[in-house]
Description:
Blueprint (H helix, E strand, L loop, with lengths): L1 H12 L1 H20 L19 H9 L3 H4 L8 H16 L1 H7 L3 H29 L10 H29 L4 H12 L1 H14 L3 H24 L1 E8 L2 E3 L2 E3 L3 E7 L6 H19 L17 H22 L2 H10 L2 E2 L7 H34 L4 H4 L4 H24 L28
Antiparallel strand pairs: 1-4, 1-5, 2-3
Helix pairs in contact: 2-8, 2-9, 5-6, 5-7, 6-7, 7-8, 8-9, 9-17, 10-11, 11-17, 12-13, 13-15, 14-15
Amino acid sequence: xxxxxxxxxxxxxxxxxxxxxxxTLMILLVYRFVSHVVLPGVDATLLxxxxxxxxxxxxxxxxxxxxxxxxxxxxxxMPYISASIVVxxxxxxxxxxxxxxxxxxxGRKKLNQITRYLTVAxxxxxxxxxxxxxxxxxxxxIDHTLFFVLATFVLSAGTLFxxxxxxxxxxxxxxxxxxxxxxxxxxARLPIALQQEISSxxxxxxxxxxxxxxxxxxxxxxxFTIMIVQGVRxxxxxxxxxxxxxxxxxxxxxxxxxxVNAAGVMPIIFAQALMFIPATLTGFFPSLQNTxxxxxxxxxxxxxxxxxxxxxxxFTFFYTAITVNPTQMSDDMKKNGGFIPGIKxxxxxxxxxxxxxxxxxxxxxxxLAIIAILPSIAVKFGIKSEFAHFxxxxxxxxxxxxxxxxxxxxxxxxxxxxxxGLMKTGRVTxxxxxxxxxxxxxxx
Length: 444
């Protein structure tokens, strides 16, 4: 406890870090305040019980409840995330985007600009769909045509405002702005979910003992998730000695950290998108509700969980294969005079790295699938659905990843000012906090 207070004191002594933390908290406070502003032309008292489930419930969680409140920030950062994913996939498949990725800072600015334009287009489409399907007609107190046009513009402006807030946090605050905004939206649901769970335990079955067991289980799941996010397989790389003039370079051993979960949360996002197709079909075609497709409308069913887990494992291998390039890693090592001890440079090195990635990706994919289906398992054990979402899935992975990244940045400021880090031993490493061993500084 003494070390904790000492660390907090050291953080407050660094003027730049203190200003960045205060700025970040102020921006997040502004975001939470604006998220409660209802769309113009809507009477909030007439919304009634507008809670969402399924994919809409997931979007509502990411938006911190703005989606169900019909807020001006109802769409949140999801259009920006969708645009970022599209641009990232284009960077893998389209040569012109690959060229921009290799152009350094200028290429990054071009990709960011493309992402912004794509965000505007996606937001406009989603705003139209949101106004048509998610705003109750009885809550609209002005002309419907006027409301439709006005709400579309306001929702688009709201998403751009959230994107601007995120960029300001990234530039002048601490941590990744967009990720922090998502994290705050998820955490905002925790007090309500915890209150519901406590009430159900004390009013219903279980009592205090069951509640304590649930909290301990949640702590264990979080620790397990951190282990998966942080897990790496270090491949040793030896660099040959070089004499340039009177100076010696190289002759040191470094490591390539191959992550156990190199795909992050992307496999879960892709798998969830496919799993919502049966529910969408049964919604459009009521005759299909009496078929086997109805099993996939319940995320706690065995068929849903098994299919979901299989898709996550498949997408993990797919996404890892297209994002981690063993051939390029081998070429970068060879250009910088590096080699893996006992492995010939070139094709043999590429094959060795590919084999290691294949071996560590399978357990990583299985563990990721387990984390994804934990909420459905928690519901089966009698935990309320709202609280069960914190036992796994995309929300838990985002929370863990964002917290680790932010702590890594804070620790970097402390170490640069010659203060102790946040841990007694070792260092906090975020999702991109481990330096690559290759000379190109590629992040694995």
